[in-house]
Amino acid sequence: MAKSVSSAKTARSTARAGGRTGASPARFSLWIAFGFLILILDQATKFWFERHLDPGDFVPVIDGFFNLTLAHNYGAAFSFLASMGGWQRWLFSAIALAVIVVALRLLWKHSRQTLFALSLTLILSGALGNLIDRSLWGYVIDFLDFYLGTWHWPAFNIADTAICLGAAGIIIDELIGVSKERS
């Protein structure tokens, strides 16, 4: 039984890679370069908002739907554990470091699998962007504020967007792999 599961995973991995598996230093380097571009965009936008707005200030962009604002998030997603006294900074930093290490290893191993590698690169750059914030400031800088009426989605940033897109990409990649297995 274990052998057939392993064979199915290998076949799916090979199918995703277009028949190619294994590390590709050149492709890995390209993914890392792309990740650094995302990281630079994330850090540059955070720097700009931190210098031009005070926390709580907002600039309407699309009335009734979208503002630019400055928020300091001491917690995780949706300000989870934000008011816990500071220990959460170290917990979320440790989680981010673990995600970065795992994503780098997987990216090296699967750099030829375009959707999977892109997804890992987005997660990697997003985790690193928010880790930099936590390390330097003790909070994550958020500035994108979407809302309808009085209901506001929690403010977020480029790193958060990259992480969400990367997670969605991994789900799509898995669904494609499962679909190909059934064909």
TrEMBL record:
A Gene Ontology molecular function term of the record: aspartic-type endopeptidase activity
A GO cellular component entry from the record: plasma membrane
UniProt KW keywords: Aspartyl protease, Cell membrane, Hydrolase, Membrane, Protease, Transmembrane, Transmembrane helix
Enzyme class per UniProt: hydrolase
Enzyme Commission number(s): 3.4.23.36
Cytoplasm in keyword set: no
Transmembrane regions: 28-49, 90-108, 115-132, 152-172
InterPro entries in the record: Peptidase_A8
Region of interest (Disordered), ranges: 1-23
Pathway: Protein modification; lipoprotein biosynthesis (signal peptide cleavage)
UniProt protein name: Lipoprotein signal peptidase
Gene: lspA
